[in-house]
């Protein structure tokens, strides 16, 4: 079961206080005196605003965080041509709208999957990622072959 976003509050605070990862080069976003830019991604059920309202209210002025809904729910119906690329494009658009160049991505469940994909494809923009509640992907079972 995915961790509710309110359970992520302490973990987010600890991650932001910790600064850069061990061995990683310091960047302005990781500097203790810099503001931390954060994009928060919800799971697949609850929209971003109610999912992260308590966390957004609890963060101090050193954190510039935005709760972003998943792109799959941007319209009345999920797009028939939906891919994870749509989520990555949405993260980039949201970050640009808030002036974030390099930023932290926090997500749980479906948002966690998006944050992992973002970190893999946009490593230069991803200060850190924090995920929770990801399920293990199981490789598809192949159908037994029939001998002719």
* Physical arrangement of strands within the biggest beta sheet: 2-1-3-4
Q: H/E element string?
A: HEHEHEHE
Structural class: alpha/beta
Tell me about the largest β-sheet. 4 strands, parallel
CATH level 3 topology:
Rossmann fold
Strand proportion, as a percent range, falls in 15-25%
Ends distance = 45 Å
The radius of gyration over CA amounts to: 17 Å
CATH architecture: 3-Layer(aba) Sandwich
Secondary structure layout:
Elements: H1 9-18, E1 36-41, H2 48-58, E2 63-67, H3 84-97, E3 103-108, H4 110-121, E4 126-132
Parallel strand pairs: 1-2, 1-3, 3-4
If you had to describe this structure to a student in words, what would you say it looks like?
This protein has 148 residues and is α/β, with parallel strands linked by helices. It has a single domain (5-132), classed as Rossmann fold (3-Layer(aba) Sandwich), CATH 3.40.50. 32% of the residues lie in helices and 16% in strands. Strands 2-1-3-4 form a 4-stranded parallel beta sheet, sandwiched between helices. Helix 3 (84-97) crosses helix 4. It is globular, with a radius of gyration of 17 Å. 32% of the residues are buried. The model is unreliable at 1-7, 20-33 and 135-148 (pLDDT under 50).
């Amino acid at each position: 079961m995915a961790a509710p976003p309110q359970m992520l509050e302490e973990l987010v605070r600890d991650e932001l206080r910790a600064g850069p990862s061990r061995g990683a080069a310091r960047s302005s976003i990781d500097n203790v005196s810099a503001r931390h830019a954060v994009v928060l991604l919800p799971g697949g059920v609850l929209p971003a605003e109610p999912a992260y309202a308590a966390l957004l209210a609890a963060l101090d002025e050193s954190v510039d965080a935005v709760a972003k809904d998943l792109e799959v729910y941007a319209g009345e119906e999920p797009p028939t041509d939906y891919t994870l690329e749509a989520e990555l494009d949405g993260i980039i658009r949201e970050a640009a709208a808030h002036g974030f160049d390099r930023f932290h991505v926090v997500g749980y469940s479906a948002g966690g999957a998006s944050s992992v994909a973002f970190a893999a494809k946009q490593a230069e923009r991803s200060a850190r990622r924090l995920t929770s509640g990801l399920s293990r992907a199981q490789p598809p079972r192949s159908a037994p072959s029939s001998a002719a």
